[in-house]
UniProtKB/TrEMBL annotation:
Family to which the UniProt record says this protein belongs: Belongs to the pirin family.
Xref: InterPro entries: Pirin, Pirin_C_dom, Pirin_N_dom, RmlC-like_jellyroll, RmlC_Cupin_sf
Full protein name: Pirin family protein
Annotated Pirin N-terminal domain residues: 42-137
Domain Pirin C-terminal stretches: 189-286
Any Pfam family the entry gives: Pirin
UniProt-annotated stretches for the region Disordered: 294-317
Upper lineage: Bacteria, Bacillati, Actinomycetota, Actinomycetes, Streptosporangiales
Position of the signal peptide: none
Length: 317
């Protein structure tokens, strides 16, 4: 899924100011967002957060479900980012303007790199239980004008220990590297723990990290984490202890602090307000984003831009 808000917030993110270089355990409360009309899916959005807007290059985190629902997201645009789709339950069909058509199931990765411009649509084949996350990765300047692309990875590498499986979705963890394309040093991993299991996950002290519980309760570096908030962990860690009394599942995100400042609005990532204005105009005029074959729905119109241009801010308020 993507950002379907009719009155989206504009956020300035990035830069090294206020990055927590030392370990912290800071719970960041998300906000509920309804995607579309009254029967649309509800998601919990924890990035960008009012207190921490990015974790490495990760700039957007939506957690949805588990709930019985039908997903139907009409064609809409993206610029300057990668979308990372990860399911715990259900199926979602992806179509895009570079001609991709790919069904994703739990444990598989759909990775779309918008580059300079792409459009796509998503739908679930039938009403069923859906549970997953939609993540965005900000592209650095060296990659954000690249050609759009799509990757599907049906199998991903894992680390295992008694009662614990760590699936490396993006980047590298513990010497295991995902085949997914990355443009900045980062990691995204799903950790599943059986009841009573525990492990210590190796980390890079130069990365900042965060964890999101997808199910159950997991003790993360001494803090009990259940579905809802994002636990910001800061940097300076060489390992992270995870323990679960009952079965649990969480998402671990991390990366080098993203040095470039970005502006996010609706489904666009740019570098300033004027660039966002241009992206919106080009989308509304049908310029450069292509069409999505087989989508069966009209493209989604962009919301109105705010009247006041964005004022630059740091990573934290």
């Amino acid at each position: 899924m993507s950002n379907l808000e009719t009155d989206p917030r504009e956020s300035a993110c990035g830069g090294l100011a206020d990055v927590a270089a030392e370990p912290v355990n800071e719970l960041l409360t998300g906000r509920d967002v309804v995607l579309g009309g009254p029967r649309a899916m509800r998601v919990t959005r924890t990035l960008p957060n009012r207190d921490v807007r990015m974790v490495g290059a990760w700039c957007f985190v939506d957690h949805y479900g588990p709930e019985r629902a039908t997903m139907h997201v009409p064609p809409h645009p993206h610029t300057g980012l990668q979308t990372v789709s990860w399911l715990v339950e259900g199926e979602v069909l992806h179509r895009d303007s570079v001609g991709s058509e790919q069904l994703i199931r739990p444990g598989q990765l759909n990775l779309m790199t918008a580059g300079r411009a792409i459009s796509h649509a998503e739908e679930s084949p039938a009403e069923a239980v859906l549970h997953g996350v939609q993540l965005w990765v900000a592209l650095p300047s060296a990659a954000r004008e690249s050609a759009p692309a799509f990757e599907h990875h049906p199998a991903l590498p894992t680390l295992t220990s008694p009662g614990v499986t760590v699936t490396v979705i993006m980047g590298e963890l513990g010497g295991v590297t995902s085949p997914a394309t990355v443009h900045t040093p980062l990691v995204g991993a799903e950790v599943t723990l059986e009841a009573g299991a525990g492990t210590s996950v190796p980390l890079r002290p130069g990365f900042e990290y965060a964890a999101l519980a997808l199910s159950g309760t997991v003790r993360v570096g001494g803090t009990d984490l259940s579905p809802g908030p994002l636990l910001y962990l800061g940097g300076g860690r060489s390992e992270l202890t995870l323990e679960a009394e009952g079965a649990g599942r969480l998402l671990l995100l991390g990366g080098e602090p993203f040095e470039e400042r970005i502006v996010m609005w609706w489904n666009f990532v740019g570098r300033d307000h004027e660039e966002i204005v241009r992206f919106r105009r080009e989308w509304m005029e049908g310029d450069g984003f292509g069409t999505v074959p087989g989508a069966g729905a009209a493209p989604l119109p962009a919301p109105e831009l705010p009247l006041t241009p964005l004022k630059a801010r740091g990573r934290r308020r």
